[in-house]
Amino acid sequence: MQGDPALPADFQTLPYANPDAPQGGTMRYCVFGNFDNLNPVIVRGALTTARGIWFDKEFGNLVFEPLMQRSPDEPFTMYGLIAKTVETDDERNFVEFRLDPKAKFSDGHPITPEDVLFTVRMLREHGRPMYANWLRPAVKIEKVGDDGVRFTFDETADRETPLLISGLPVLPEHAFDEKTFEQTTLKPVIGSGPYVIADVKPGQEITYEKNPDYWAKDLPIRAGMFNYDRIVIDYYRDSNAQFEGFKKGNCHIYLEGDPSHWRTAYNFPAVTDGRVIKETFHTGAPANMLGFVFNTRREIFADRQVRKALSMLFDFEWANKTLYYDAYQRTGSFFQNSELSALGRPASDKEKALLAPYPGEVDPEVMDGTYRPTVSDGSGSDRKVMRAALDQFEAAGYRFEGRQLVGPDNKPLTFEILVQSPEQVKMAEAYTRTLGRLGIAANVRLVDDSQYQARKDGFDYDMIIGVYSASLSPGAEQSYRWSSKAKDVNGSFNYAGTADPAIDALIDDIVAARSREDFVAAVRAYDRVLISGHYVVPLFHLPEQRLARWAFIKHPETTPLYGYQLPTFWRAPQ
């Protein structure tokens, strides 16, 4: 995205993979949920597609593959896979891929430019919205020679567009019926990846077997990757049953995100005698932003000062000590723990120049680097914090009437927090506990997944708990989260309902940056505007990744920039 690739053209293996990893054996994963679809790119069944087929950030792309492969050891760099070469100009007005003549699907059919053109057509007509967004700037797509495909862009393209397109899957035209493509299916799909779908038990289990004729098995980009002969993914409807399955050895890895569970649940014999290993991994990636998201489309949250006051009232110190064994760290930035974060850094001259057209957008303490989320005394009723929050409310025209906080419209300040799980209920109740002390009536409503998804897609909520994933190369995805054009698009990720010219301009600056220096300045300025907008009540993050594994599952010594990569793990011979 900026600068040069980290690896030379003649690299022999990825730095985080072990090219000598033993091959063979079965890996069993366990996941929560169910599935009823094997086509991972269509809108229908998007939430119930079997894991591992495509775009699986944990298990890898087992069946479908992209033109180029992203390296998780760099902010945003793509290396050739199905595409043997790539060409673009300095302005990135086009990108042309030449396909590897060895590339073929698992049924032996060679991968052709026609397959790429078919894929583009299907993604535009029936694919998930992000694919159409990636492809929108491509006004001309054509076959070039016997093995090439060229994408020509209009003025809406940016420097990220060719990288996004290089990450598209390639689907076999001969193996799909165009008339029924948009329908969910349980018929095993055919791809070019290292595995084929061997067995399907809908909603319960899917089994992948390694393709012995996998076309890319000897490429450096695949050395030390996908080391199992067989991968089985078991589905559980209950998280307790899922963990019990791991304890019994029915699955071999457990990805742990609950610090309370991490501290209290691993007292079974296999941990004590060393057959199960608890492990932490440190990464260079930013922490995700978890927070209560204000829907600013609602009048009660339209005032930034009100949002700021409400943000002060989440008592992190009390919640972390009482509910989470002090396992979490407080989040204050959308790119925390990385060079992209504005937290603790005064704005540079480059940042000030980017922000100059938008006076008042950034709080003074955020601009000079002294901002931190409110710190309480951990008692659960810090009077100093509540007094400071009340001062903010009073400046916004609020007052007490009896035991209620009443706004300028003479209505009590009350709102609903929409949640979808017991864990979210616990977080929300920790928040409402403090709000109630200041006369604010916040109600927690737990709804089922289908209702939650429908209300979220239609922005039918006052507040939700949202997670904004972070990377070292934020780009076009920020537009779908925060831009004016996404505000009124049902199903977009603009949960907060932001429509701010400063945000729009800074997103453009981010994707247009050519040097890492300019990019970092643009992202930090953007971070300052998001922080100062008080669109979320920042919550917390774990300082490391946590994973438990049976001891016969091994992994390389090197952890890449974005954390452990399960496709590089292997099973020790027994």
Automatic annotation (TrEMBL):
Transmembrane segments: none annotated. It comes from the Bacteria. InterPro entries: Peptide/Ni-bd (IPR030678), SBP_5 (IPR039424), SBP_5_dom (IPR000914). It holds the Pfam family SBP_bac_5. Gene3D superfamilies: Dipeptide-binding Protein, Domain 3, Periplasmic binding protein-like II. It is found in: Periplasm. Residues 79-487 form the Solute-binding protein family domain. Keywords: Signal. Belongs to the bacterial solute-binding protein 5 family. This is Extracellular solute-binding protein.
